[in-house]
C-alpha cells in the first residue's frame, strides 16, 4: 500500500491534517508535563493559606484560647500541635520542586518576619501504585508539614493535607481535541478542494482540447487565478483553432486549385505524338491527381471534427467494410464482438478503418480483423500476411506522404496519407493507432477507441 497519496488533493490534505495533528500532539505533551507542576503549586498554595489562617488566629488569641482553637480547627486534613517535632532543626535533605513551592507559598501566606520551617511537602495520591492513575486519572493533592514560630516565642506544628481528587481531565482533553481536529479536517478538505478542483478542471479541459479543438470555451468565473488560467486556455484554444483553420484552408485551396491545371495538362498530354512519353506523362499526372485527391481527403478529415459524436456499432461498421472488400475479391475475416456501441464520429471512424484495411489488402493478401472489448476501450486489430514495415520506419509511416522505400515502385498507388489520416481520427476520439510487426510475418495495426472519449 502506498503511504503518500498520488493526488495533489490527498497530498495537501495529508500534509495539513498530519502537520496539525503533530503540532497538537506536541502541545498536548508539553501541557501534560507542565500540568503536575501547576497542580502542585496550587495545592501548596492552598495548604499554605490554611496554615496562614491558623497562625493569624492563634497570634491574636490568648494562651488560654489557643488550646481551644487548636482543638476546634483540627480535623482529618489539618492537625495543629504545640512545639516543634524532634529533629526538625536539621537541614531538610530533600529539596524537591514541591518543597520549594511550599516554602514560597508559606512565606507569602504568613506575615513578614514570622519564623517558619517547612519540614516536609509531598504529593498525595488516591492511587499511588498506578502510573496511569497518578498521571491521568486524578488531581494529586499536597501534604505540607511545617512548624511556625508565633509572636511570643511559641512554636506550633501544622500538618495540612490538601486531598487528591479523581478527575477525567484526559478524557475531556481528548474529546475537545477530537472536536477541534474534526472541524479542522473538514475545513482542510474544503479548502484543498477549492484549490485542486479547478486544477483538474483545467487538466481535463486541456486534454479535451487535444481531441476537439472546437470544444466550448471554459467558463471564466471564480477566483482570480482560476479566471486567469481559464482565460489563458481559452485564448490558446482560439489561436490554435485559427492557426489550424488557416493552414487547412490554404492547403485545401491549393490542392483544389491544382485540379484544373492537372486536367489541362492531361488534355495537352493527349496531343503528344510519342506514345511512350505520353504514357509516362499520363502516369505522372495520375499520380499527381491522386495526391491532390487524397490531400483533399486528408484536409476533410482534419475538418471532420465538426461531425457529431454518436453511438456507433463498430461490429456492424466493420461487417459492412468486410462485405465491400469481399465484393472486390479480397479475403477478410472478422472475429470478436463489441459488447456495446462506442461514442464516435461515424464517417471518420469508417475512413480510419477503411485505411487500415486497405493497407492490409494492398501490402498483404488478406485482412484478419479481431475485435477485443476491454470495457474501458475497444481494440480493433487488423493483421495481414504482407512484408511488414522495417522497424526504423514504423513511426515514420504515420507522417503525411511518407512511404516505405519500395512501396512507390510496387503498384499500390498510395500517396502516403492513409495512416496519417487514421491516426488523426483515432486521436480525435482520444484513442490511438499502433503498428507492430508480427513474428510470423505481416503487420498488425491496432485501433484503440476509449469509451470515455468525449
Ligand atoms: N499493412 C502494411 N504492410 C506493409 N507496409 C505497410 C502497411 N501499411 C502501411 N505500410 C507502409 O506504410 C506506408 C504508409 O502507409 P499509408 O497508408 O499512410 O500510405 P499509403 O498506403 O502508401 O497510401 P494511401 O494514402 O493511399 O493510404 C505505406 O506506403 C507502406 O510502405
Ligand atoms: Mg494506405
Walk me through what this model shows.
The chain has 454 residues and is of the alpha+beta class. It has 3 domains: 8-172, no CATH class; 212-306, Helix Hairpins, CATH 1.10.287; 308-450, Heat Shock Protein 90. It has helices at residues 8-60, 63-73, 97-109, 131-137, 169-211, 224-270, 275-303, 314-327, 346-363, 418-428, and strands at 78-82, 116-124, 138-139, 141-149, 155-162, 165-166, 310-312, 331-335, 342-344, 366-373, 377-383, 432-437, 443-450. The chain has a 5-stranded mixed sheet with strand order 8-10-11-13-12. A 4-stranded antiparallel sheet has the order 1-5-4-2. Helix 9 (346-363) runs antiparallel to helix 10. Bound molecules: adenosine-5'-triphosphate (ATP) and magnesium ion.
Average pLDDT value? 87
What is the strand content?
15-25%
N-to-C span: 32 Å
What order do the helices and strands follow? HHEHEHEEEEHHHEHEEHEEHEE
Amino acid at each position: 500500500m502506498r503511504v503518500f497519496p498520488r493526488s495533489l488533493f490527498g497530498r495537501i490534505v495529508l500534509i495539513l491534517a498530519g502537520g496539525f495533528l503533530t503540532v497538537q500532539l506536541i502541545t498536548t505533551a508539553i501541557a501534560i508535563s507542565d500540568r503536575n507542576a501547576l497542580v502542585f503549586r496550587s495545592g501548596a498554595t492552598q495548604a499554605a493559606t490554611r496554615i496562614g489562617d491558623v497562625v493569624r488566629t492563634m497570634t491574636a488569641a490568648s494562651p488560654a484560647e489557643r488550646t481551644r482553637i487548636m482543638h476546634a480547627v483540627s480535623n482529618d486534613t489539618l492537625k495543629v500541635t504545640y512545639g516543634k517535632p524532634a529533629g526538625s532543626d536539621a537541614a531538610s535533605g530533600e529539596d524537591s520542586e514541591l518543597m520549594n513551592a511550599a516554602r514560597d507559598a508559606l512565606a507569602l501566606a504568613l506575615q513578614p518576619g514570622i519564623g517558619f520551617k517547612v519540614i516536609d511537602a509531598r504529593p498525595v495520591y488516591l492511587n499511588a501504585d498506578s502510573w496511569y492513575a497518578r498521571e491521568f486519572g486524578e488531581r494529586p493533592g499536597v501534604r505540607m508539614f511545617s512548624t511556625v514560630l508565633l509572636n511570643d516565642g511559641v512554636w506550633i506544628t501544622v500538618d495540612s493535607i490538601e486531598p487528591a481528587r479523581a478527575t477525567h481531565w484526559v478524557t475531556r482533553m481528548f474529546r475537545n481535541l477530537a472536536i477541534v481536529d474534526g472541524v479542522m479536517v473538514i475545513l482542510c478538505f474544503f479548502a484543498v478542494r477549492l484549490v485542486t478542483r479547478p486544477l483538474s478542471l483545467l487538466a481535463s479541459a486541456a486534454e479535451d482540447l487535444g481531441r476537439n479543438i472546437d470544444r466550448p470555451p471554459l467558463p471564466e468565473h471564480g477566483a482570480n487565478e482560476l479566471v486567469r488560467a481559464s482565460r489563458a486556455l481559452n485564448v490558446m484554444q482560439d489561436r490554435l483553432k485559427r492557426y489550424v483553420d488557416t493552414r487547412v484552408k490554404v492547403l485545401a485551396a491549393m490542392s483544389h486549385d491544382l485540379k484544373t491545371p492537372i486536367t489541362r495538362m492531361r488534355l495537352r498530354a493527349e496531343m503528344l505524338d510519342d506514345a511512350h512519353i505520353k504514357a509516362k506523362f499520363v502516369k505522372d499526372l495520375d499520380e499527381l491527381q491522386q495526391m491532390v485527391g487524397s490531400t483533399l481527403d486528408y484536409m476533410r478529415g482534419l475538418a471532420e471534427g465538426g461531425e457529431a459524436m454518436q453511438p456507433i456499432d463498430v461490429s456492424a461498421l466493420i461487417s459492412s467494410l468486410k462485405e465491400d472488400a469481399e465484393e472486390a475479391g479480397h479475403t477478410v475475416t472478422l472475429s470478436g464482438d463489441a459488447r456495446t456501441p462506442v461514442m464516435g464520429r461515424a464517417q471518420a471512424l469508417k475512413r480510419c478503418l477503411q485505411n487500415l484495411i486497405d493497407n492490409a489488402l494492398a501490402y498483404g493478401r488478406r485482412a484478419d480483423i479481431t475485435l477485443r472489448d476491454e470495457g474501458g476501450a475497444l481494440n480493433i486489430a487488423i493483421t495481414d500476411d504482407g512484408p511488414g514495415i522495417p522497424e526504423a520506419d514504423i513511426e515514420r509511416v504515420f507522417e503525411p506522404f511518407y512511404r516505405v522505400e519500395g512501396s512507390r515502385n510496387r503498384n499500390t498507388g498510395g500517396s502516403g496519407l492513409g495512416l496519417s489520416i487514421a491516426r488523426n481520427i483515432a486521436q480525435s476520439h482520444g484513442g490511438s493507432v499502433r503498428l507492430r510487426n508480427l513474428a510470423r510475418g505481416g503487420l498488425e495495426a491496432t485501433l484503440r477507441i476509449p469509451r470515455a472519449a468525449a
